[in-house]
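#structure-requests
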Amino acid sequence: MADLLQELGLQAFKIEGVDIIKPTKKPRGKALTPERQEGNWEVSQRCVRIEHVYSSVKRCRMLKEAIRMRQDGMRDMVMEIGCALHNFRVRFTPS
């Protein structure tokens, strides 16, 4: 079964066959337990890494601006090209 990291602002989004991982909200007037704080920290660390990859993908200028191509699948293809360029850059950049 696949995992999906989800922010608290997208609570209504659900996909069948996918486990949704999201941070725990703090109860009103109370503090989170240390276990839940640790869980929220782990989720946030994964989200930060994903956001860094997303910002790297958006180095392609065509992904930063509005895509006005209306053909079916064109916007997905542009994003796939951006992701492929990111993977190429990561794979062949000496570290």
